[in-house]
Design goal:
By secondary structure, the chain is an alpha/beta fold. The protein folds into 2 domains: 199 residues, Medium-chain alcohol dehydrogenases, catalytic domain (Quinone Oxidoreductase, Chain A, domain 1), CATH 3.90.180.10; 138 residues, 3-Layer(aba) Sandwich (Rossmann fold), CATH 3.40.50. 25% of the residues lie in helices and 23% in strands. The strands form 3 sheets. Strands 3, 4, 5, 8, 9, 16 and 17 form a 7-stranded mixed beta sheet that branches. A 6-stranded parallel beta sheet has the order 12-11-10-13-14-15, with helices on both faces. A 4-stranded antiparallel beta sheet has the order 1-2-6-7, with no helix packed on it. The radius of gyration is 20 Å and the shape is globular. The protein starts with a strand and ends with a strand. The relative contact order is 0.16. The model has no long low-confidence stretch (mean pLDDT 98). The structure holds nicotinamide-adenine-dinucleotide, ligand AHE and zinc ion. The site of ligand AHE has 12 residues, from loops.
Amino acid sequence: MKTKAAVAFKAGEPLRIMEVELAPPQAGEVLIELKATGVCHTDAFTLSGDDPEGAFPAILGHEGAGVVIEVGEGVSSVAVGDHVIPLYTPECRECKFCLHPKTNLCQSIRETQGQGVMPDGTSRFSIDGEPILHYMGCSTFANHTVLPEIAVAKIRKDAPFDKVCYIGCGVTTGVGAVAFDAKVEPGSNVVVFGLGGIGLNVIQGAKLVGANKIIGVDLNDSKKTLATEFGMTDFINPKDVDDVVAKIIELTDGGADYSFECIGNVNTMRQALECCHKGWGESWIIGVAGAGQEISTRPFQLVTGRSWKGTAFGGARGRTDVPKIVDWYMEGKIKIDELITHTMPLENINEAFDLMHEGKSIRSVVLY
Ligand code: NAD
Ligand code: AHE
Ligand code: ZN
């Protein structure tokens, strides 16, 4: 079939909207008609050329929601008409990782996913017979996409696609980092570096679990209003203080119980670790840093009881947890609408990247 897609031909170049060919789903795969997709900073990161796994030409996008319109041979967990959210972290429920209680990082198709192809090593997308790569196993910047059935979460039919697409990455990553991975206890002091599409979800997660102080750090003062509405108790703009770490230690009487880095900058990752309380403070890296970047600190920071950890997709096991997070939204336990600051048709998707780089949006959502 033919479908409309935003194709990334080269790092650093705007996406080009065009018709592409999409081959039918093979055994174990499903064809999805996407109804909406968010634009995450990770899409911009890969498009910038900083992603060591970035390969072109590709169809980016990994924060979608849509409807199953065809299933390949042997598909049993979803059917035509089901509403689904694509999963860049699949859940096969069989691999060593899925069977281990401490991780959500299903590895059953990770290798081919990282190469931009389906598990059989080929791409379903092409233009004039030339293959176009998939991205993060999702490629939601296309009106239709093909995914392995282990990489889709079936969700309730009354959930609005234009909001719950954000659960495909940002909401789950932020709320899940707090609730599933860090397991922040009520009364904890929490610091969030970066108040964008991820950081604001960390804030709402921290509020949900009953954190005490929730300190937000961002270079952009305009993020303060929404962050406060979501539960931030204190705001620090690094431009206004001599030493961010010292300021946090002062505000928290010794340091944060938990910090979350939601920027992707190795300098703020160091600050996020070093603002943690001696003896027990945990710093969780969410931000994705470019090729060649490395983190550093004095080992004494760890010797004296701070720990440095990382989280992907909020520790969520997609097929199990994503439908539950959709329920949380539908029941009013978490907010999404307020974070979707812009919507646009696929034709205008490059504006979503401009708004992000200008610091004017939290989430832009493309509506098909
Ligand atoms: P975003 O662009 O919406 O937000 C980033 C925020 O950081 C902005 O508010 C910006 O003003 C602020 N910022 C930038 N540099 C800063 C600095 N030096 N000091 C303080 N604030 C600064 O991005 P996002 O969509 O929220 O994504 C954030 C990061 O999380 C990205 O690196 C993204 O790739 C990563 N991410 C990781 C996962 C995961 O599973 N680990 C999932 C989604 C996104
Ligand atoms: N390809 C990059 C790493 C990118 C990365 O860390 N991705 C996160 C999700 S970001 C979503 O917006 C992730 O899930 N990581 C675990 C994984 O297996 O990719 C690189 O540095 O090579
Ligand atoms: Zn993302």
